[in-house]
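Structure tokens please, single chain.
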Amino acid sequence: MSNQEEKSAVSQAQDVEAMSFKEASIELERIVRSLESGDLELEASLENYSRGVELLKSLRQRLEHAEQKVQVLVDASSESLETSDTCAAPSVAYIDE
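Here you go.
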């Protein structure tokens, strides 16, 4: 991809929040590779870097949100197990009688 095409691709990029997690991850990987190549002009590098920061921020927020949802589900699951255990084994005292 030429420098001009790279610059155009960044300026026409999708809104980060409209992208799926996977799409944003793929775009971030592409940006990192292009920055690491060192083939971009300064302006294109700055635009790519800025877009990468935007993508990374969004991805981190989404992961944090997903982790919070999982924690809520785990907490709710463990609470329901503790309070609804009606099939507990009888105590040893009853077995010996």
